Amino acid sequence: MKLDAVELRQVALPLVSPFRTSLGTQTVRTALLVRVLTDEGEGWGECAAEDEPTYSPEHLAGAADAIRRFMLPALAPLELDPAAVGPALRHLRGHPMAKAAVEMAVLDCWLRARRTSLAAHLGGVRQRVRVGVSVGIAETVDALLDTVDRHLSAGYARIKLKIEPGWDLEPVRAVRETFGAEVMLTVDANTAYEPGDLRHLAKLDAFGLALVEQPFAPDDLHAHAALAARMDTPVCLDESITSARDAAEAIRRSACSIINIKPGRVGGYLEARRIHDLAQANGVPVWCGGMLETGLGRAANLALASLPGFTLPGDISATERYYHRDITRPFVLDGGELAVPAEPGLGVLPEEAGLEACTTVVETVSC
Ligand SMILES: CC(=O)N[C@@H](Cc1ccc2ccccc2c1)C(=O)O
Ligand SMILES: [Mg+2]
After folding, report:
1. What angle do CA 125, 127, 129 make, to 5 degrees?
2. Phi and psi at residue 123, in whole multiples of 5°?
3. CA 331 to centroid of ligand 1, rounded, Å
4. Of 119, 269, 273, 326, which has the fewest CB atoms closer than 10 Å, so is most exposed?
């Protein structure tokens, strides 16, 4: 498969409600979409990077620049298949989200041409996946309880509460006491705590959480291992794991016993599968994290979450949790589950009207 041209498109989707985490508050999701035009058809990819480098070191404009100036020239001369993209970009350091978006578009195109779904290609074993929802930091505990009540009524299999210093024990206690012991509950600090907070965080053990996600800095495996040694609640890593090598090291160091896999953060769906395989070999459950993706990333994440080791509900929520209108068909929650797309490639395509309505920038790079 040869690249003829690549379209880089920026879209802006207003969120149904502000999403506040320890990293800040989002009201609009701007995303970079990659469309490859090849001799075998077209394919779509989505880059997880936000406008600002708060979640990770990448940001949208930097990803577009890295794709335009370095990745496409490296790929243009090659006879491509999905497995060739990673090796062809290995000489470029970092930029996992940019690399993941390009590889995803090549995967989509290559699989469509072969009438194979991404789930089938990755080795999926289920047609539907149980999903959870991520709940932002709220103005008041009462407001939080209303939001959680709405999501539980919708049927979500797991509630994840964003926490930060000053918003942790009290809201978690209120949710546990209000909704009972049966609700699967997790917390995600997005690296907001310091090693000195260890004793405070250990108090979360009182609430029967399924996991505590990324309390400390991405590069501080020692602090996560120290917390894991002190807590009954499993420690889960997100930002720390940017490759299969990172996953191996974190497991070796007992820094986590659960991993949140995000294809953008780790450089693509093929690396995500390698992390799944490695974790499964070590008895470490994984789940699919979310980056407020459009329906393109949502569809691909569902394919990944259909693999056997994805045994915990993740953050692939229904479209309506984030957007009134998406660029693809909406994903609708049914009994706490979402259906895994079975059509070729990602199984979804942007809808022309919806796509044009939220497009802010389009450029075509000929290859
Ligand atoms: C669903 C969820 O909690 N996602 C990330 C955090 C996150 C939060 C806010 C975001 C805003 C724009 C783009 C990506 C973002 C990711 C997480 O698991 O840590
Ligand atoms: Mg997280």
Report:
1. 90
2. 105, 35
3. 18
4. 273
Average pLDDT, the chain: 98
pTM (predicted TM-score): 0.98
Atom of ligand 1 nearest to the CA of 29: 12
Pairing of strands 3-21, 24-38: antiparallel
CA distance 315 to 133: 5
Q: What are 19-63's pLDDT values in tens digits?
A: 999 999 999 999 999 999 999 999 999 999 999 999 999 999 999
Query: Nearest 10 degrees: CA dihedral of 12, 348, 329, 127?
Result: -130
Strand locations in the chain, DSSP E? 3-21, 24-38, 41-47, 128-130, 133-135, 159-162, 185-188, 211-213, 235-237, 258-261, 286-288, 337-339, 359-366
Give the orientation angle of helix 269-281 with respect to helix 96-113, to 10 degrees. 100
User: What pLDDT band is residue 220 in, cutting at 50, 70 and 90?
Assistant: very high
Does residue 162 have an active-site annotation?
Answer: yes
What ipTM does this complex have?
0.95
**Residue 174: band (very low, low, confident or very high) from pLDDT cuts 50, 70, 90:** very high
Is 2 an annotated catalytic residue?
no
Q: What is the mean pLDDT of residues 253-270?
A: 98
Cα-to-centroid distance, 291 and ligand 1 (Å):
5
Ligand 1 centroid – CA 170 distance (Å): 22
Give the residue whose CA is nearest to atom 2 of ligand 1.
Answer: 290
Tokens of 342: 């079975």
CB 143 within 8 A of CB 70: no
